[in-house]
Amino acid sequence: MEEKLTRLNKYLSEAGYCSRREADRLIDAGRVTINGIITELGTKVTENDVVEVDGKSITERKADFVYLAFNKPVGIVCTTDTRVEKDNIIDYIKYQKRIFPIGRLDKLSEGLIFMTDDGDIVNKILRASNNHDKEYLVTVDKPISQTFIKRMAGGIYLEDLDKTTKKCTVRKIDSHTFTIILTQGLNRQIRRMCEYLTYEVTSLKRTRIMNIKLDVPTGEYRAFTEQELKTLHMLLADSDKHYKQTTELKETKKVHSINRRKE
């Protein structure tokens, strides 16, 4: 019987060590070994291989996964690399098990971020095509005009990223504060959008991700409720189905395009 082969980044993710994206960074940095040998991106492993990160063995997890809603303070960096960044999210929380953040909030921003040791759920949430709602409360340095609200909601071309932001929901709260609901996660997206319109963000707080709202004090966390986790999995199942359908459609169009060029 042939041994089951698993891509190394997926193995680390399913072992609850980190996300696949973070695993790729660890592999690329030469910090991961298989049977004592430094490995490379794309390598596959079997259940009998000995996988180590920084010399410490990784074993497939058997315990229940951890899902936390954490209110990140300003000044904390969403990285698991505790060797490089002293103000990292891992050392700040000091959770008894190894967990990692899903996505990021930049150092100057605060608010809701998920922490988990479930690598599979990380990948599903981070897929750009899933269009998951993320809501933010934003304060800027000068009075907000209706033109500002309209242009923020309609989509803005970010030249340095060569991307136009998706249409979104923007609502004015007071003269300097608004809420915005995004369905994409470009790097420093809200700050870049405001800068384009000559506004500067003075505070930015994420208040909701999908069905889970921020309801704990700054610097504290809580576990997902059973109902929250059930609803989250339902939302991810629907978007995962859409992702697969979209991928299959793209592949079909690609094949048709290749065949037309051959004719």
List keywords for this structure.
263 residues; Structural Genomics Hypothetical 15.5 Kd Protein In mrcA-pckA Intergenic Region, Chain A; Alpha-Beta Plaits; nine-stranded mixed β-sheet; four-stranded antiparallel β-sheet; 17 strands; 32% helix; globular
Describe this structure in words.
With 263 residues, the protein is an alpha+beta fold. The protein has three domains: 6-57, RNA-binding S4 domain (Structural Genomics Hypothetical 15.5 Kd Protein In mrcA-pckA Intergenic Region, Chain A), CATH 3.10.290.10; 67-127 and 215-226, Alpha-Beta Plaits, CATH 3.30.70.580; 133-209, Alpha-Beta Plaits. Helices cover 32% and strands 25% of the residues. The chain is built from seven helices and 17 strands. Strands 7, 8, 9, 10, 13, 14, 15, 16 and 17 form a nine-stranded mixed β-sheet that branches. Strands 3-2-5-6 form a four-stranded antiparallel β-sheet. The chain has a two-stranded antiparallel ribbon with strand order 1-4. Helix 1 packs across helix 2 (20-28). The chain starts with 5 loop residues before the first strand and ends with a helix.
